[in-house]
Specification:
Protein name: ATP-binding cassette transporter
Distance between the termini: 31 Å
GO molecular function: ATP binding
Strand content: 5-15%
Keywords: ATP-binding, Membrane, Nucleotide-binding, Transmembrane, Transmembrane helix, Transport
Family: Belongs to the ABC transporter superfamily.
Number of strands: 13
Structural class: alpha/beta
Membrane topology: Multi-pass membrane protein
């Protein structure tokens, strides 16, 4: 059985001293460069100029991480696949030139009525087509393999940084442009890694095609002499000049009418992510919504969010309409232009039919190469928006990572106790990321085997203190020290139930096969969930099936399996009735008699299970520890009604004068 040494933050988990380094080491198999230095905006810039500079830097920030795929710590397939793709692009251009020459030969043979040449070229055409098809198919496969590997490499690195040291939780506590990180990591990162490969392959292919077939146009077309007002003007390489001017006009037009494409695409992606998040939020909280009858309110919220999505799609459709107008018009006109330009030379006999058709084919290829921006501007804008959204998340993680390495914002330190104390808070102060104090300096030392209750009114900083102890809350000063080689286990108010089998849910955060099935069943039986033993191997949405009380009982079953040295309970029995709560606490004390317990709770009934109580009080400038007392061991009285419901006969016995019947008989 493995130790519960990797602590999933904000869920149940265990964390020993030094677990931070262990977790970082196991979380990522991809080495990434340290975050770049923060760049302060020029104070002389206007807000609009500062925003424009930030948006430009976002693309730079994306490439700082993304280019590492081809670096020393990148993927071993990166360079071989990239070189192979380049070779196939070059070979495909060669086949295009061969087909272009074939067009000239076949039409010249038809013009001469040369049947033998026509039959010969017909036979040659099949190998040319077959070779081109094989190359294009292989090119698609290699290109998509680069995209897939690049996405896997960058996503692995980004997810590792997101999960490390609880940053995925800390992002919820700080400001910044990192909303909906799940959409940025999944959809935006996919587009951000797929599109550049397509673009680079397209640019290389366009450049090689344009270079090759400009020579063809220059050679075939030659010079064009135009008589104007009794004078003659000679235009050398008139087909090349026409192709360049035609592409310049269409590209400039598309750039002007589509200048807002990037911004509209970015806003569209953001509202789409917000709509997905709203739908997910409704699904995850379906029970509460159904019990409260909040369907109408949720529908209004969804309608509002979806209306915003449709509004942004309408704006994007207008951009598509403008660019489509230019690109489709260009596609229809481009094949006709070279034929019209070559017609005078053909009619006067200085150009053959084969040369006309070769020129038309070459002109179309050159125009396609020059018009690459026209055809891909919408995708380029979409990539621009997605890359910036990914970079925004990277920058937020950069800030957290820099804060971990710097003392400028104040960091809570985690170390080892020098005495026999199990847990020690040394001048611990907790603050927000902007420096606002939440909990003032706190000095607490907890010995092995102590059971400490942390009390205080709502908002006094109890849960924040627990997060600081667990390492989730990094800001503040002072230190949290644990006894060396002791394991900490957290039980939050809302236990995390992962997807998959119930057995996996009980064993979490360890693997489902971390314990024999008999041990898992025994743990469930001790917490009163033995009726679930037959369903341990079933895959189901257990997070939705189990009630709040059952989830908390399941968390106690995890606790028994992991057998830690220190337990931190953050309202871990709030969903249980008083009787079930008592049973859980008694069970923990009986099964783990030497365990050290730190509990955060509002219920006064829990005092009987603790040997010490510290109280936090909310004050201006941060909560403060106002009392630290030893609890007097005592037995608890049970109400007459509860005793009667348990055993009606006990009421009759108690009425005979036996005072013992009024005591619950529970021991501390």
């Amino acid at each position: 059985m493995t130790d519960a040494k990797l602590k999933p933050t904000s869920v149940d988990g265990a964390k020993p001293d030094g677990a931070e380094e262990t977790r970082q080491g196991k979380a990522s198999t991809v080495e990434v460069a340290p975050p770049p230095d923060v760049i302060e905006p020029d104070p002389d810039l206007t807000p609009e100029e500062a925003e424009q500079a930030r948006r430009k830097y976002l693309l730079k920030r994306f490439w700082i991480s993304a280019r590492g795929y081809w670096g020393r710590s990148g993927d071993g397939f990166a360079w071989p696949c990239s070189i192979g793709l380049l070779v196939m692009i070059c070979m495909n251009v060669g086949f295009q030139y061969g087909i272009n020459r074939w067009n000239r030969g076949i039409f010249d043979a038809i013009e001469r009525h040369d049947a033998g040449t026509v039959y010969y070229l017909s036979a040659v055409f099949l190998p040319l087509v077959a070779g081109s098809v094989v190359l294009v198919t292989s090119q698609v496969y290699v290109r998509m393999m680069i995209q897939r590997h690049w996405r896997r490499w960058l996503a692995t690195a980004l997810i590792a940084r997101w999960l490390a040291n609880g940053r995925y939780y800390q992002l919820n506590l700080i400001g910044g442009d990192h909303k909906n990180p799940e959409a940025r990591i999944s959809e935006d990162l996919r587009i951000a890694t797929e599109s550049p490969v397509d673009f680079i392959a397209g640019v290389i292919s366009a450049f090689l095609s344009a270079s090759t077939f400009i020579v063809v146009l220059w050679t075939i077309g030659g010079a064009l002499t135009l008589p104007i007002g009794g004078m003659s003007i000679t235009i050398p390489g008139f087909l090349v000049v026409t192709a360049v001017l035609y592409a310049a006009i269409t590209s400039t037009t598309i750039a002007v009418i589509g200048r807002h494409f990037v911004r509209v695409s970015e806003v569209k992606n953001q509202v789409e992510a917000e709509f997905r998040y709203t739908l997910t939020h409704v699904r995850e909280n379906g029970e509460s919504i159904a019990l409260l009858g909040g369907e109408e309110e949720e529908r209004n919220d969804l309608d509002k969010t979806f209306t915003n999505v449709l509004r942004q799609w309408a704006k994007l459709s207008h951009q598509y309409m403008r660019t489509t107008f230019v690109s489709h018009g260009s596609m229809l006109i481009a094949p006709v232009v070279p034929v019209l330009l070559c017609a005078p030379k053909f009619l006067e006999g200085s150009m053959t039919l084969g040369e006309v058709m070769q020129a038309a084919s070459a002109f179309a290829i050159v125009q396609t190469a020059f018009g690459w921006l026209v055809d891909n501007y919408p995708r380029l804008a979409d990539w621009n928006a997605c890359a910036r959204r990914v970079a925004s998340l990277m920058m937020s993680l950069d800030g957290l990572e820099r804060a971990e390495q710097s003392d400028a914002l104040g960091r809570i330190q985690h170390g080892k106790t020098e005495s026999e104390a199990m847990l020690s808070l040394n001048d611990l102060a907790v603050s927000l990321d902007d420096g606002t104090a939440v909990v003032k300096e706190t000095q607490v030392e907890i010995e092995a085997g102590e059971r400490v209750l942390v009390a205080g009114e709502s908002g006094s900083g109890k849960s924040t203190l627990v997060r600081a102890i667990s390492g989730l809350w990094p800001w503040g000063h002072g230190s949290v020290d644990f006894h060396p080689d002791r394991r900490l286990f957290m039980l939050p108010q809302r236990p995390y139930i992962p997807s998959g089998t119930l057995r996996r849910a009980v064993a979490y955060p360890n693997a489902a096969d971390g314990w024999p099935l008999d041990e898992i069943k025994a743990a469930l039986q001790k917490v009163g969930l033995e009726y679930l033993n037959e369903k341990l191997e079933e895959e189901a949405p257990w997070d939705q099936i189990l009630s709040g009380g059952e989830k908390q009982r399941l968390a106690f079953a995890r606790l028994l399996l992991h057998n830690p040295d220190i337990i931190v309970l953050d309202e871990a029995t709030s969903a249980l009735d008083e009787k079930s709560q008592d049973r859980m606490m008694e069970m923990v004390i009986e099964e783990l008699p030497k365990v050290t317990i730190v509990s955060v709770a509002h219920r006064a009934e829990l005092e009987v299970f603790h040997s010490r109580k510290i109280t936090l009080e909310r004050r201006e400038g941060g909560a403060k520890l106002v009392s630290d007392i030893d609890l007097i061991p005592r037995k608890r009285r049970r109400s007459v009604l509860s005793r009667f419901l348990d055993n009606p006969r006990s009421l009759a016995k108690g009425s005979t004068g036996s005072g013992k019947a009024e005591l619950s008989g529970k021991k501390k």
